[in-house]
Amino acid sequence: MPARRKISLWELKGLKESYGVSLQAIISRVGTLGLVTERQARNFRETIRANGWLVTEPVEYRGNEQAMRLQRLVSYAMAERIIAPERAAALAGVSLAEFLSELGEIY
Question: Is the pTM of this model over 0.85?
Fold first, then answer.
């Protein structure tokens, strides 16, 4: 199978929706990987400017980002017996039963 030499705006939008990376960053990366030529990347950048997408791109990132640090710290403290299960559940903002169910076994 021959190497790709083109990428569609639809594919770029899909990548942004999945990973939250700007279209400009994606086209830059596919350029570095040799998936598009410098001329194609330049044409894409011109399209971005012409359509006013420099700040507001035509697709939004809809990822479901969640802060995980507190969860990891509570899990660690519970596993190392630094805090009691009841305190861990309170810090996590869930019932003790829900916390223990989510935590699973400690190895």
Answer: no
